[in-house]
Amino acid sequence: MAVVNNTHRPRESKRTANRNRILNLLFREPRLSRLHLARRLNINASTVGNYIDDFLARGVLLEHHPGATRRGRSPVPVWLNPAYGHFLGIDLEALRVRTALVNFAGEVVAQREQPLRASLGPGAVLEIVARLAVETAAIGEDRPLLAVGLAAPGRLDFRGGRIAHYDLRPGFHDVPLVESLRPRFDCGIYMEENIRALTLAEHLRGAGQGHRNFLCLVSRSGVGMGIVIDGKIYTGHHALAGKLGQSMFPTDDGARTMTELVSATGIVRRAIEALREAEPTSLRQTLLAKGDDLALADLVAAESDRIVGRLLERAGTELGILAANLANIFAPEKIVLAGEVPTCSVQLRPAMEEAFARYTVPEILHGVVLADGHFSAFAGALGAAYLGFLRTFPQEEQPTIEARQPALPARGGVGDPRDGYLGPEVSHGILP
After folding, report:
1. pTM of the prediction?
2. In the predicted model, is pLDDT for residue 383 greater than 70?
3. Which domains does the chain have, with CATH numbers?
């Protein structure tokens, strides 16, 4: 538990915040000069120079002296020292867990993935998560691990570091995710909702970089949405914004959730229902014989089958209608598509794009871009690792902390009345 000094020292706190702002801007935009940093952050140039000199002396930053030009001395760029330390990101979803280790400059050092059988209970899943996390962190054991970020699914208890409830895994109620990792790591552990962590990655360094208003539509094990408004990730009341998977959609069989219709797990379940009722063929029997191990990739490989192909096409149409509805509501600059579903099939993707173009208001359609994310499957794990950097170097002024920071960030969650945006230290993805 951190001990907070009740005597708040504003000047020291402001200095720390300004130093962290320099690191945050360099994390987003590498290789900036002292003068450029001073102008972008509106900090006195000599003050920035002093901070940079200190960072260089401590090995936090590196610099390059290109020499003089005909117009005089050229600006000297500085950048984060990749060897200063590592950050570990963990992304847990229904079908798998992924990890990513990045260096201090945010560059990928290692990525790992482990599938999760549907029959595994919470205890077994936590053991797999911990083992994969430790194995991934060990790859960078030559440098200190500075923080661990968790991208967690379902309804979260941020203060308790727990997954309060997750529909897509059996028995996932009140699961102590953070506590299960504390004995393994001697650094800060920070948890965030997995779709927002994924959105953070695209916001800082991916398809959302440079855009102040965009959506991240995620369709993988489940369905969710990240919302960026005026350069900040919007979290909503009780940090529950973006629960798109629970949105209802009318079908011939009655109303169904978007998770049931367009997630990887939902598409597989619908395929099993359809194949059981269809005329048997050797291909269909092979698919059904896989049981709980049947995956979206198996269906894509069999999309030449009339039943499977039609199902994938219908899922694409429904995903396109969903994207069109979101465009009509938010009028964003861009909708970033993430997860394996939007790009999985040559039948699904055209149907999605056709429905999006058909049902989006023409004036909005002309101003919005529908684009794939930059980080593919590991976006959530990378976003969790980036979260570790941003929580380690927060940009807001804080009381002096005389001990190691607590493992959990003080932010909104289940039962917490605070609303709004993903913390000042995280939300300023686009600096003025």
Report:
1. 0.87
2. yes
3. 10-82 (1.10.10.10), 84-203+377-427 (3.30.420.40), 210-373 (3.30.420.40)
